[in-house]
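>> Question from a student workshop board

For tomorrow's exercise we were told to take the sequence and the ligand below, predict the bound structure, and bring the output to class. My setup keeps failing. Could a helper post the expected result so I can at least see what it should look like? The ligand is iron/sulfur cluster.
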Amino acid sequence: MTGGGRPPTLSPFPARLRAAGVVGAGGAGFPAYIKARSRAEYVLANAAECEPLLKKDRTLLEYHPEKVFDGLELMMRSTGAAAGILGIKKKHEKLIRRLEEIAGTRKNVSVAKLGDYYPAGDEHCLVYDLTGRVTPMGGFPLDAGCVVCNVETLYNAALSDREPVTAKYLTVTGAVKKPCTIKVPIGITYAEAIEIAGGLKIRHAAGIDGGPMMGKVITDFNTLVNKSSGGIIVLPRDHPLIVKKVRSRPVFSRIGRSVCDQCSFCTELCPRYLLGHSVQPHRAMRSLMFAGGREKLHSEFALLCCECSLCSLYSCPENLDPREVCAAAKADLREVKTGFKNSALNTGRAPAPHPVREERKTPVSKLIRRLGLADYDTDAPFLEHDYEPRRVKIQLSQHIGVPCSPKVSVGDLVKKGSVVGDVGPDELGCPVHASIGGKISKVNEKYVEITA
Ligand code: SF4
Ligand code: SF4
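>> Workshop helper replied:
Here is what the output should look like for this input. Compare the format with yours to find the bug.
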């Protein structure tokens, strides 16, 4: 058995979260102990799951609602929050009735119903919809007195006194034989997850790792499952969504420069703009026209973009890529050390939501049709399975912060739950653990391989 370095000095619950490797399971991968040691008025459990086709949060709540509420209460106690609110879409009526029953047995905990719009799970949108508070521009939910946690993060937090994070809930859907939601050991490949789901239905497939809006296209299904994976959506390689998502910067820049007519629909429907934040993707698009051969974009109107993709995949009538342009502009601005704090747009003004924000919310049903995913919009029920991988690769970078250093060597024997990588005591991050027992068969700077 091996172990990590000396952990930082933390109070018991944050220390427990760090030791168990609990990080944001909704895609962000932010170490949960940092949130647990902050002071907040509200803890918000994010069950909005607004990415089309993904069902893993709903499934987890169907099977382990008590544990999620346990995690919510632990986080409330740790942060001193007076209230905990679980936000979930009102379409899940039966599940909500069960959740309300459980909430009724707990203190200062409630369930709030959200509309079926995208991106209801964006943390700034969630903070506003659940508390009526607007997160300051360039700030975090904590600046509005809130800690936001995905429901799987809270589930892992509740288990953290007994077991570290070694498994992940995933939805495997799209062109697979049995769309489903499964619990799998961290470190298997998506190819293995797809086999559990009956295998591919098509020959020339690509996948979207995560939801169709914010997920990344993969053509290699040997991509590893990690702590913040949400699922895989398998589509034909020539599906318009795949084609659009892999457009390179020169291509989307050239098309954007010649086609954008500055209609500003991208801005008018942008969820952060509708919260009153200074993000205006049409003005970032305008900067394409001035970039010339230099190709660097310095539009500060991109700085507060959360890269939700609504502008690129829904709003723009010309099928352009304002999201990619905003992401490129943010990267270019980072090079010249410009962030929102030192931006000319940082006037200190408190944002006020747009008066027609409610009317401009994007229904997920319309979004699914616009994405060309209506044929794949099926249920993905929980599937019990007995798959035991022969080999896993535990990635050393599964969280925001400093990647772990390996704490094992080839030939070491590890048990399920052993620490195989950790960060330094004063670094942002937390350990990674063996998801199966076995022998260490490979160690490099990216992963630790365990063979059963
Ligand atoms: S919606 Fe499209 S065409 Fe209109 S301003 Fe935005 S990027 Fe340009
Ligand atoms: S991706 Fe587009 S819609 Fe989403 S926050 Fe950024 S600019 Fe707004």
